[in-house]
Amino acid sequence: MKILVAITGASGSIYGLRLLEELLRGGHQVPLVASQSGLEVCRYETGLELGDAEALKQQWKLPDASLTIRAVTDLWAPEASGSAAPDAMVIAPCSMGTLGRIAHGISANLIERAADVMLKEHRPLLLLPRETPFSTIHLENLLKLSQCGARIIPAMPAFYHRPASVSELVDFVVGKLLDQLGVEHQLFRRWGG
After folding, report:
1. Domains in the chain, CATH or no CATH each
2. In this predicted structure, which of 29-43, 45-59, 172-186 has the lowest mean pLDDT?
């Protein structure tokens, strides 16, 4: 499966990186695109540079798999067209600015255009908003996107599996994204399991 992963400037780039790791480990083809703010926040939070696929694989210890880095300005990328749309797209984390522009059909960069393509082609678009509290504008944009077919998976970990570390909290949220993609995983113990 080809799954476009986008990282925007909200705090929580670890969610996108952990998702990337699991998808590549599962043998999926993963184009990765980060907004300028996403690059900066990821660098600040993790020390990682997202612009170089080989360096990213080594730094994050990603398995050798199909990883392609796309520039956020590359509107000629295949993912910008419905005729070459990926099977699914995940924006993790999704900033409220990106979410608002997608909700209003503004496609000024590859992340926004690819999201628009996913909505018009009725393909899975998963958004992991990372903001708190939500303003009324945020909630209206989330509702609008949900009504248009996007799946909203907030970065809200559960505690019934008794997490013992931050990484287990991250894995729970990433596991919920993988569930929505139909990708098998063992990232958390399920309720009643």
Report:
1. 3-181 (3.40.50.1950)
2. 45-59
